[in-house]
Design brief:
There is one protein chain. By secondary structure, the chain is α+β, with helices and mostly antiparallel strands. Helices cover 29% and strands 19% of the residues. The protein has a 6-stranded mixed sheet, with helices on both faces. A 5-stranded mixed sheet has the order 1-2-5-3-4, covered by helices on one side.
Length: 417
């Protein structure tokens, strides 16, 4: 019997495509944040593409068209930042149903333009077509970097490297959970929701990290630390150790989680869509970095056939990140959207929280951020300081005052081929 895509999973589908289409010699194709196309000018061209589908990646009833436009540009430009490149252009394609108004498209384009202008990235073309019922957005982004040194890939992590992130984790996941729980949008909740709807790609940080010869591997955090670090380890043939107490958490996330009884560490590890940079570098290089960052672990030798992450401080198995095509066994899509077994969203009022899908009551629909007891236990957050930006005794290296005070700007993307 043919295997269904829900069984194969998103990464299984990507592996199937990669096996069929091999990149020409000298070209980096499927398997990183961007394809790398060498040019004759001493510079490499970076290319990436992403798709956002209404009902799978966003809910039109909750996200404003301005925020959706911002986010559509941001998550793609972040792919260029993930490799230390400089974004140069985007191409936007839209499939829109007939009930979309010109006011909606004006606001969408305003948000798209504001984020693009922030990084000097022009929109140079695209395509438009009609859709029967849902909005579909596809963005292709181009970037460049010098051929000497070249783009930072996922496959360069080395034994003894320290593992770092450029900012706090879990805010976007906390914002998404707050939306579906229908929490009152006080200052802390609103900050988390803004980080979910308006991520800011770390372009200057990525370019500066690429210039440091001691930085060996890098990618952006879109699927969650647990999943994205696994990609680096798979590509590099290494294992890793992560100190859960060193993972940076924002004040806003700590406050909201404390009031709701949520585990902020689990959101930080498994939630995704923070779009901070995850990178590995030598201890000597880390000591000289001027880019704000947190050290959260180290790279170790591979001890078995498959890559392994050791989570120091965990009181049970750590929840994995996103596999968009698999969802989980209870019918939850990527990003915590409620759906029935056919993958469709039931009617709901985000202000009041989602309703249990009709026809699938016998399947207990859970939050993406909750873990079935048979699969994993909660991660303990015991020992965390709820007063500071970082966990006890941990400060961001080179963190400016604006970042310490949580003036962090803050997302859904498909896993790249």
């Amino acid at each position: 019997m043919p295997q269904q895509l829900s069984q194969l999973g998103e990464f299984g589908l990507i592996a199937q495509i990669r096996e069929r289409f091999r990149a020409p010699e000298g070209v980096t194709g499927i398997g990183d944040d961007c394809a790398i196309l060498p040019q004759n000018t001493g510079r490499d061209t970076l290319v990436s593409t992403d798709m956002l589908i209404e009902g799978t990646h966003f809910l039109r009833r909750d996200i404003s068209p301005y925020d959706l436009g911002w986010k559509s540009a941001a998550v793609n430009i972040s792919d260029i930042a993930a490799m230390g490149g400089h974004p140069t252009a985007t191409f936007l394609s839209l499939a829109l149903p007939g009930n979309v108004t010109t006011e909606w498209t004006d606001e969408f384009l305003r948000g798209y333009a504001e984020l693009s202008d922030r990084f000097g990235v022009p929109l140079l073309g695209g395509d438009t077509t009609a859709s029967p019922d849902r909005i579909c957005i596809n963005v292709t982004v181009l970037g460049e970097c010098p051929s000497v040194r070249g783009a930072l890939r996922r496959d360069g992590a080395k034994k003894g490297d320290v593992i770092c992130v450029t900012g706090t984790l879990g805010d976007s996941a906390g914002g998404l959970k707050a939306i579906f729980k229908g929490l009152r949008r006080d200052a802390d909740v609103q900050r988390l929701i803004e980080r979910h709807y308006r991520p800011v790609p770390r372009v200057p940080e990525g370019e500066e990290l690429r210039l440091n010869l001691g930085v060996n591997a890098m990618m952006d955090l879109s699927d969650g630390l647990a999943s994205d670090l696994q990609h680096i380890l798979d590509a590099s043939g290494m294992d890793a150790e992560i100190d859960l107490a060193a993972i940076p958490l924002s004040l806003a996330l700590k406050h909201v989680c404390a009031s709701q009884g949520w585990d902020p560490v689990q959101l930080a590890v498994s939630g995704g869509e923070d779009y901070e940079l995850l990178f590995t570098c030598t201890p000597q290089a880390e000591a000289l970095l001027s880019v704000p960052h947190f050290v959260i672990g180290k790279i170790t030798d591979r001890t078995r056939g498959t890559a392994r992450i050791t989570w120091r401080g965990a009181q049970g198995p750590v929840a994995p990140g996103f596999d968009q095509r698999r969802g989980n066994k209870t019918g939850v899509h990527k990003n915590g959207h409620w759906c029935n077994k056919s993958g469709h969203l039931p009617p709901q009022n985000p202000r009041k929280g989602p309703k249990t899908p009709t026809g699938v009551q016998k399947y207990r629909v859970e939050w993406l951020f909750s873990v079935r007891l048979s699969q994993a236990a909660s991660i303990s957050s015991t020992g965390y300081s709820w007063q500071g930006l970082a966990p006890d005794g941990q400060n961001a290296k080179s963190l400016p005052a604006s970042r310490r005070s949580m003036a962090l700007e803050s997302g859904t993307e498909n896993r790249h081929l």
